[in-house]
């Protein structure tokens, strides 16, 4: 996948959107509007990354995307209904339309967190095992930073407001598995993970969200 100068500059749009979001969340006048727009912004930004990163040229990436989305939504539904995967939690209404208690945007965001963590890891090392391990670790770190803000904003709620270690263990295993699927998906003999490795947009989307949640810790 070719990274043109124009494509490499698209990341600025991501940061602008999230900086505006930070400002809106810190402004009482627009706070409720920001919450209402949350699932739509996540959808819009995700589509933006997909369209302008170039990954949609790959049939195998699309297959990975669809399968991983379905699997993560099923895991979330199972988790909400039973508590056996992540622990005892329920989703609020902020993240939009829900299927069996799980907002459909959640599976979408899982994909970008994992692909973003994978992209970051791929820029640190060329060792496949290390890339997979770091992808899982970075995904867990993302969730660790996200959790307190997500509860504050009403995205979801943990039983007794306690985030169990089980949640982070599940994140690690799921991210490791999905990253492995991304790495070993093949297209014309070329490792499919290069489609994500070569795109800065996934990495910047990952960082933009981290900045967003870190900033909202101070609200």
Explained architecture:
The chain is mostly helical. It has one domain (about 5-215). About 70% of the residues lie in helices and about 5% in strands. The protein is built from nine helices and six strands. The chain has helices at about 5-10, 10-25, 30-55, 60-80, 105-125, 130-155, 165-185, 195, 200-215, and strands at about 90, 100, 100-105, 155-160, 185, 190. It has a two-stranded antiparallel sheet with strand order 1-4. It has a two-stranded antiparallel sheet with strand order 2-3. A two-stranded antiparallel sheet has the order 5-6. Strand 2 (about 100) and strand 3 form a beta hairpin. The longest helix is centred in the N-terminal third of the chain and has 26 residues, at about 30-55. The protein is globular. Residues about 1-5 and about 185-190 have low confidence and may be disordered.
Low-pLDDT parts are 1-6, 187-191
Terminal Cα separation, in Å? 40 Å
Number of domains: 1
Kindly name the structural category: mainly alpha
Structure summary:
The chain has helices at 5-9, 11-25, 28-53, 59-82, 105-124, 128-153, 165-184, 193-197, 200-216, and strands at residues 89-91, 98-99, 102-103, 156-158, 186-187, 190-191.
């Amino acid at each position: 996948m070719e990274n043109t100068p124009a494509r490499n500059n698209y990341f600025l749009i991501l940061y602008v959107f999230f900086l505006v979001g930070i400002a809106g969340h810190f402004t009482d006048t627009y706070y409720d509007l920001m919450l209402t727009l949350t699932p739509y912004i996540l959808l819009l930004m995700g589509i933006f990354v997909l369209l302008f990163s170039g990954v949609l040229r790959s049939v195998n990436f699309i297959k990975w995307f669809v399968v991983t989305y379905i699997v993560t939504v099923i895991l979330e539904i199972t988790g909400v209904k039973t508590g056996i995967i992540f622990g005892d939690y329920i989703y609020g209404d902020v993240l939009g339309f829900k299927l069996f208690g799980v907002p459909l945007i959640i599976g979408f965001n899982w994909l970008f967190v994992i692909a973003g963590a994978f992209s970051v890891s791929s820029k640190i090392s060329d060792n496949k095992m290390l890339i997979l391990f770091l992808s899982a670790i970075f995904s867990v770190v993302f969730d660790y930073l996200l959790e307190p803000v997500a509860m504050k904003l009403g995205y979801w709620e943990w039983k007794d407001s306690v985030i169990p270690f089980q949640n982070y263990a599940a994140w690690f295993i799921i991210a490791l598995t999905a990253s492995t699927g991304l790495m070993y998906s093949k297209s014309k003999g070329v490792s499919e993970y290069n489609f994500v490795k070569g795109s800065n947009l996934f990495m910047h989307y990952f960082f933009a969200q981290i900045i967003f949640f870190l900033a909202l810790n101070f609200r």
